[in-house]
Fold this protein.
Amino acid sequence: MAPKNIKILYFDARGRGEISRLVLAAAGQKFEDVRFTRETWPAEKPNTPFGQLPVLEIDGKRYAQSVAISTYLAREFGFYGKTNLDGLQIDQVIQLGVDFWNAATKYFMESDAKKKEELLKNLKDVETSKYLTFFEKLLKDNKTGYFVGSGLTLADLFVYDLIYFLKKQNMLPSQGFPSLQELYNKVVSNNNIKAYLAQRKETEN
Amino acid sequence: MAPKNIKILYFDARGRGEISRLVLAAAGQKFEDVRFTRETWPAEKPNTPFGQLPVLEIDGKRYAQSVAISTYLAREFGFYGKTNLDGLQIDQVIQLGVDFWNAATKYFMESDAKKKEELLKNLKDVETSKYLTFFEKLLKDNKTGYFVGSGLTLADLFVYDLIYFLKKQNMLPSQGFPSLQELYNKVVSNNNIKAYLAQRKETEN
């Protein structure tokens, strides 16, 4: 593959942009990490395909939608398994993860204090353990320590990022998910990821 | 590819299951169209991967998540373009469509009458034209009458299904989206799709 000029455009946060950065980091691929603030974003918004971030720019052309761009990068850099059925199982994990992010986003976007409290309780007590239980089972069933096949894929990176979020929000149960804990350790021990994380800017979300 | 024993499990509706049925129909691939009712679903729920429908069953093995399974079927049956970049552009359309479905689902799930009315107004006056404008532009820019490349893909089937929904709900603007109207006509004129639609059970959603 010819080397490409790659930019990831997103806010100054992990959010829905981090998974694309993680795939590029795992690949050891250089990219420009462009971050917008509340002040700089409005001027850039009309230059994005759908007025949203993240955006992937490859050799000057722009694409949007977090799942679409991270899946593309995973295919391009060898983190999408070997077979068509591997791809299905990876996408299954990603889409489950998206359902979790949607539940989390609902909480973060709620402005009514009472409703926000209810949503947080539901996120902590119901959603988090529901999704972690699904992930733990999928991981355990595959028996390799990875979600799909026997090597690192987009699915592992996606769930690593989700666990990082839960840790940071103090929402990760302290026990009960041994396979996920092992996966987390394995991802942060990956040399490329380790180098990336060592220089990553720490942000709240 | 060896012939497979394929089942699509979903409710007695189009909803998030129809896109997988449409891909199989376009491929001329036989499949078992299993439909659950409010009465029969609870007994089946524990036998599904995540307690959700749709589910794809291939040779006895079950997979879930609508986008994951329809994308798998599209790859398997040649409706996912030719290049990795085609795949990105197809996924971009699908993910935009998912954003629209999420907005529509919010309306359908709302039980408070006043809020439901507001959500419907927003869906009709804001969301629908926003997404149709994005789709119209993508389609027009590609210049082939299809969303990606020069033949039918998952993206065309997905947006056809979305337009069918809008028509049925009387939410489709009567003019202003000529490329989308052409695409709709092209999809329903496809021989395999035509044969499928001629025998499809009509449902509300």
In short: The helical segments of chain A are 18-26, 41-44, 66-76, 84-109, 113-142, 154-168, 178-189, 191-199. The longest helix of chain A spans residues 113-142. Chain A is about 55% helix and 10% strand. Chain A touches chain B at residues 49-50, 63-69, 71-72, 75-76, 84-85, 87-89, 91-92, 94-96, 102, 134 (CB under 8 Å).
